[in-house]
# Entry
Amino acid sequence: MTRIRVGLDVGGTKIDAVAVSPEGEIAGRLRRPTGWGEAAVVSSIVDAVSALAEETGFDLSDVASAGVGIPGLVDADSGRVLHAVNLGVESLDLAARAGERLGVPFRVENDVKAAALGAAALSGAEGAMAYLNLGTGVAAGIVVDGRIWRGSRGIAGEVGHLSVDPNGRLCGCGQRGCIETFCGGGALARAWGRPGDLPVRDLLVAADAGDPDALLLEAGLYQGAAAGVRVLVLSADVERVIIGGGLTALGARLEDGIRAALLAGAEASPFMRSLHLDERIELLPAGSPAAAFGAAMVGASIPSKEIVSHG
Ligand SMILES: [Zn+2]
# Structure
């Protein structure tokens, strides 16, 4: 019997699912739309695992574990998800409900933390690394020697809510000038405030045309992300910061912009220059399976006695 590890990255619109072989290779991958609301989220996860098994050619009885990365507050011990607003989930006993439907042991983790694990594994990063997610919101996951560093209350890596400008724009958390108000997709869209399906792209187009509001927001985007990189290196001395999330669709322009902001910020400081922050960042490649792969690693951390008792 093969022992397949399934990993699912559950986003607001789609689920990215991978099947990982015992050798750690990705044996299959598919994307499915995510349902809205608690029952639909469970069903779309169950359907994704079933479809992945069928397409890849394994039985559900071959699945040793399934891991889910999902936004919101996640209690990794109980497998419960709270306040996943973009999924219409208030409180969901996800590991138990999905596990019951499929007869497979499930483990659940916050999506950014799962992606951090996957990014660390796929990049071969050793020691301490961080994954900085520039999505609708901004958060980071810190991985030390292949394990997520949670801190005492699970807050480690919540760098999006570090205020870097006390007079800045109001953040959803109640503070002003949080890093997230500069480089979170949701906050940027609100600050831009003009209609359009791709507000961040629109504002870059406007910046190219010389629009002063857009130029300020673009500069702030890079400075905010650079502040995130800086705090991760200064507080956890991570060797690499891998940048992922929806905003990485901006590609080289984003990477170059953050790098330039890091260089400019270090210009007057021999200490900051000595850290070579601009050399420590990289963008997660477009379409990377890091988040789903990391979720599979989360599932694989289920103790073997638990697998036997459920499976
Ligand atoms: Zn905030």
